Amino acid sequence: MGSKMQHLMTTYNRLPLAFARGEGVWLEDSEGNKYLDAISGIAVCGLGHCHPEISKAICEQSSTLMHTSNLYEIPLQTRLADRLAKLTGMDRVFFANSGAEANEAAIKIARLYGHKKGIDTPSILVCEGSFHGRTMATLSATGNRKVRAGFEPLLRGFSRIPFNDLDAVRHAATNDQNVVAILVEPIQGEGGIKIPDQGYLAALREICDDNGWLLMLDEIQTGLCRSGKWFAHQHAGIVPDVMTLAKALGNGMPVGACVVNKAASEVFGPGNHGSTFGGNPLASATALTVLDILERENFANQAAQSGALLKQLLADALADKHGVKEVRGVGLLLAIELNKPCGELVMQAADKGLLINVTADTVIRLLPPLVASESEIREIATRLIPLVEEFLNK
Ligand SMILES: *Cc1c(COP(=O)(O)O)cnc(C)c1O
Question: What is the pLDDT of residue 292?
Fold first, then answer.
């Protein structure tokens, strides 16, 4: 702490906090102060910090074989793909190293799919308020203007519509012959935990089927049990054509995945896409262990229960307060939306030993580890509620 970081690029607005170690839902700084982590490294460490089984898998795999290359077969990668196919009911997987990279694969698949149908200028519908990453293609797809500003010319081939607006999708279907896919988050994460109306995803599925479009879901933040189901789209009872994953898949080990079904699984052939590190033995062994634990201990269920409890505690205390727009959430993707910018709450909470996040200026976002116990969930509410009350009374 207090270092000048003069040789780091100034790409982040960092908080003046640094952690030395972590265990479960707790992080500790170099002075021994403990922080209850209600953000999980932005939905990454769902199984908590330094889960012993994951640490062991990393140690063992790193002393057996870390990397070979996709020049060769990688049995652990094959097993990981089999597991993801079984969990999703989808056909094939491409492995990358981040969320943005997983989305890059999805975007390339949509374009090639379009070209194979004879559409020379394929277009992908994307939503206002969305976040898909920071590479040129994914920032072009992203709805947040701040992410795009200064990086023009943006990639063409994206057509933007409001989130949760089926009429806009239907309008595109009748008026734009170039559309080949829609890329959407089942719940907008960075955009402020925005939950679409019941029926939205099912209707998108139908529109995509009717028009021969790919339904591409960015589940990088919502996937892997956080929403109370393995994948957020399962609440809608549908299966997408393309789904991207990253964040929680490695619990801190960088792993991304682009999972595809049916027609979308026949788009890429040899030479169309690749990654040096993608799905290497270390990443694959880690992700396999993550999936083992999520499945064995039924963390989808746990997230549903913990999330319902935390939402209830927060809503009971805050929902009717002047200045609170809404307390909302699905599973352990939770938000308290206020009627004014509340970024200052982040450091105030940290001073009380609680790590939270504020996104979209006015939304307190909570993404606690799925492993949080009932008493830890209650402790998050106990620490947060008085801070929000005080902030609102100012
Ligand atoms: C975090 C996130 C990304 C980008 O993932 P990176 O690993 O940072 O590239 C993309 N989409 C969503 C919905 C995300 O939450």
Answer: 98
Identify whether 247 is a catalytic site residue: yes
**C-beta of residue 306 within 8 angstroms of C-beta of residue 377:** yes
Q: What CATH number is given for 65-296 in this structure?
A: 3.40.640.10
Catalytic residue among 94, 218, 241, 311: 218
DSSP per-residue letters across 324-376: EEEEEEETTEEEEEESS--TTHHHHHHHTTEE-EEETTTEEEE---TT--HHH
Q: What is the mean pLDDT of the segment spanning 198-227?
A: 98
> For this structure, is 95 an active site residue?
no
Q: Ligand 1 mean position to 185 CA, how many Å?
A: 10
Q: Are strands 256-260 and 92-96 parallel, antiparallel or unpaired?
A: antiparallel
Residue in the block written with tokens 């793909």: 81
Whole-number mean pLDDT of the chain?
Answer: 97
| Active-site position among 194, 229, 247, 311 | 247
Question: What is the CA(300)–ligand 1 centre distance, in A?
Answer: 21
Q: In the chain, which segments carry CATH 3.90.1150.10?
A: 2-50+299-392
Q: Is 321 a catalytic residue?
A: no
Please state which architecture CATH assigns to domain 2-50+299-392: Alpha-Beta Complex (3.90)
Ligand 1 centre to CA of 218 (Å) is 8
Give phi and psi for 93, each to the nearest 5. -135, 140
- The single residue of 94, 131, 158, 163 carrying the catalytic annotation is 131
The whole-number average pLDDT for the span 60-88 is 98
Domain(s) labelled CATH 3.40.640.10 in the chain stretch across 65-296
